């Protein structure tokens, strides 16, 4: 059983080869869970239109177009507004957080023939074009390694590791977008939204399977005992054999509550 009409499509997309995952469509499918009537095809058309108006295929041209002419910028005043994590809202409002602004740059860049890559630096997502690092949150500013060290120091005093500046694929970007939403909905105690966010994270290859246990707990709190048992049974199927029986027992207990 799927939570929303778009869940099955999202799961199918992320199950394929990482390089082939359509980042724009998958990101919009995340948004469609918050906006069930969202026309994903129409929203993809908005990205097409943005690209059609871009005056060139060079990095400086793209950055000036998106962050100058179009006015995309970081939402510093309401950073934790969930709309900052929904691609349709970011395109409409021209406001976002680093990762969603990066998705806009990546997807418009792809459409004009400029291959930008996501960079999952802790606390502040970036984009890369060859050796050039760009911060979409601050108007497409180019960053040096020293700038990255400063950003990391401001985000908890983390020291720069070269791996932090390596490109990441679409699945890692989508998982991080959902992780941001997860924190927002935990802080606001929005259990119904938290359910679909965690459910989507659990279908992305490479995400910690322990999130299935969290999903089960969320569903129990919502009174969805059958769905909670489903999550535990998925966890049991991929767990260490020593843990399988214990997890299956918890699932059976949940199903017994339905009788």
Descriptive notes:
The longest helix is centred in the last third of the chain and has 18 residues. This protein has a five-stranded antiparallel β-sheet with strand order 6-5-4-3-7. It has twelve helices and seven strands. The mean pLDDT is 95. The chain has two domains: 164 residues, no CATH class; 52 residues, no CATH class. With 259 residues, the protein is α+β, with helices and mostly antiparallel strands. It is globular. Helix 9 runs antiparallel to helix 10.
The total count of strands amounts to 7
Q: Strand percentage, roughly? A: 5-15%
Q: How many helices in DSSP terms?
A: 12
Distance between the termini: 20 Å
Structural class: alpha+beta
SSE order: HHHHEHEHEEEEHEHHHHH
What is the count of structural domains?
2
Subunit organisation of the chains? single chain
Largest sheet: 5 strands, antiparallel
Which secondary structure elements does this structure contain, and how are they paired or packed?
Elements lengths: L6 H9 L7 H12 L5 H14 L5 H11 L3 E2 L12 H7 L1 E2 L1 H15 L4 E3 L6 E4 L2 E4 L5 E3 L1 H10 L12 E2 L1 H18 L3 H12 L8 H11 L3 H14 L2 H16 L3
Parallel strand pairs: 1-2
Antiparallel strand pairs: 3-4, 3-7, 4-5, 5-6
Helix pairs in contact: 1-2, 2-3, 2-8, 3-6, 8-9, 9-10, 10-11, 11-12
